[in-house]
Amino acid sequence: MITVSSQTMRELDRKTIAEFEISGETLMDRAGEGVAEYVYSLVRQVGFEDPLVRLVAGRGNNGGDAFAAACRLKERDLDVQVWLACETSAIGGDALKHLARLRSARIPLEEFPTKADWDDEIAANDLSGCIIVDGVLGTGIRGPARGPSAGAIAYINAVAPQNFVVSIDVPSGLDADTGEALGDAVYADATVTMGLPKTGLVQPRAIEHVGVVEVHDIGIPASLWQSMRSEVELIVASDFRKVLKRRPRASHKGNYGHLLVIAGSAGRWGAAGLACLGGSCSGVGLVTALVPERAASFVLSMTPEVMVQGGQENEAGGLREDALDLLGRSLDAFSAILLGPGMSTHADSLRMVRAVLDRTTAPVVMDADALNVVANNIESLAKHGNRLILTPHPGEMARLLGVGVSQVQDDRFAAVRKAVAASGAVVVLKGAGTVVGGPDKALHVNLTGNPGMARGGMGDVLAGFMAGLAAQGLDPFDAARLAVYLHGKAADQVAWRGTQMAVRPTDVAQSLAYAFRDVVLR
Q1: What is the mean pLDDT of residues 405-410?
Q2: Quick check: 50 pLDDT over 90?
Q3: What is the mean pLDDT of residues 389-415?
Q4: What is the pLDDT of residue 89?
């Protein structure tokens, strides 16, 4: 989905009101409904028992959105209260109409019109197990927050570790265009943004503040924005409505592709097993694994649905190049191939990569050691680029480009553009705010996922899952975008049911079936 500047979004709002006769009051009500819908989904997924929802509202339109959300949450029988970072006499416009509704609904409302009032609440800091909704400041801020607004932001951040924070449209204090924190800014677990995502939300510098980003449709007519383009887009569920098609009742496994996974070496059998697990959760019809001979029984026990072939080993415990002959068929019999998880950087691995690329026309996902063995020579992939997906983490990207990791992380967008230009491939730079790029494509940023994914093996599941999607006929760019979105969504579901601390790659793989519902049912 395209991203827009705050000025463009205001103009879209204005045209919607003026040309389509949808009132600002109605747009505010729809925004409130979107926030309420998201909060209510959290209550159900996380398993909160009778949670308190405290909405912190400012004097502007974001405050009005918070008032509207409070009313909608009250209708869902949740325990709701509103804390106001100003006096009620400062509220005007459409927000005032929703404040009147809030009062009619007898929702508790407290005023905290000075920074000192908020400092007192910070000192108390006795809140836990609550959902905080941040509606203090919106997209119109120019400079650091001051007075009670600054106090409200400091309060939200002080209680955030023990509670769940949802920001309305943009975390308060964050520049909606640049993603820069203008002084103190809210650290949200999720941001529900209205209409279209704002450019600043997808910037790497905003990652720590925005959390998961959900886009809520408030009824801006598509005719006003569908012809617009942006250099950076946000990956959202609606991107894939035409990608995932209904499965005919008479389907059989041959309809959904055959994935070949080539992975593993001594001490890294788990990488092969996790990659196969990710592949088997993708919907692909068949998965064959070519792994070192001693790893075969382990991988089979981990994924009994996978057909496992043990191949000849070299002295590093990895596959020899001639292990491909054991498959007994042309590589073109496979609809996609995954190369690399745990494969080692032995010279045989480089020969294996070259042999696979030369002997198949199928899409190939190159991960981990398949990337490491072509370090500093990414241009060598260009003749195969139109069917390749490269999935480096920052260290692997640095080796591919011959630069330092800090240089990659300082400008992740530039690193992806450079890798795409050099290889002609789809490139997936993993990490918080995974970036997907492809030839003649806008960069796409994924904001699903959470810090619980910072664990060995996550990338192996992702690579297998991505390759499995490609094996079903998805365009490599679509397969990459859908994989990172659903992989992060599955990890969020695991974290919500339990805790980020204990999110395991196997848990994420098992949750992928439920993550698919986010695309299929929306």
Answers
A1: 98
A2: no
A3: 98
A4: 96
Distances (CA, A) of 189 to 15, 88, 112, 218, 239: 32, 28, 24, 22, 23
Residue 3, phi-psi category: left (phi > 0), alpha (psi -120 to 50), beta (remainder): beta
Confirm if 224 and 303 have CB atoms less than 8 A apart.
no
Tokens of 294: 């001693």
Q: Domain end: 196, 231, 266, which one? A: 231
Q: What is the pLDDT of residue 488?
A: 98
Q: Across-strand partners of 81?
A: 54
The answer to whether 153 and 186 are in contact (CB under 8 A) is yes
What phi and psi values does residue 203 have, to the nearest 5 degrees? -75, 140
Measure the CA–CA gap between 58 and 63, rounded to whole angstroms. Answer: 5
Q: 3-state SS of 39-67?
A: HHHHHHHHCCCCCEEEEEECCCHHHHHHH
Average pLDDT for 472-490: 98
pLDDT in tens, 86-138: 999 999 999 999 999 999 999 999 999 999 999 999 999 788 989 999 999 99
pLDDT in tens, 234-273: 999 999 988 988 899 999 999 999 999 999 999 999 999 9
Instruction: Catalogue the long-range contacts made by 347-353 (C-beta closer than 8 Å, 24 or more residues apart).
Output: 348/314, 348/316, 348/318, 348/319, 348/320, 348/321, 349/318, 349/319, 349/373, 350/374, 351/321, 352/262, 352/319, 352/321, 352/323, 352/324
Q: What is the arrangement of strands in the sheet containing 388-390, beginning at the earlier edge strand?
A: 232-234, 443-445, 435-437, 426-429, 388-390, 364-366, 336-339, 258-262, 286-292, 307-311
pLDDT of 522 > 70? The answer is no
Residue 363 sits in a domain whose CATH number is 3.40.1190.20
* C-alpha–C-alpha distance, residues 140 and 147, integer Å: 17
**151 & 262 share domain:** no
53: CATH: 3.40.50.10260
Is 5 within 8 Å of 175 (Cβ atoms)? Answer: no
Domain identity same for 270 and 419? yes
pLDDT band for position 518 (cuts 50, 70, 90): confident
Instruction: Mark whether 209 and 262 lie in a shared domain.
Output: no
Counted domains in the chain? 2
Half-sphere exposure for 217 (CA within 13 Å, toward CB): 9
Contacts with 414 (C-beta within 8 Å, 6 or more apart), sequence order: none
- Domain hosting 192: range is 6-231
Mean pLDDT over 361-385 rounds to: 96
Q: Which residue has the tokens 């941040």?
A: 134
The sign one gets for the Cα dihedral 354, 385, 203, 170 is negative
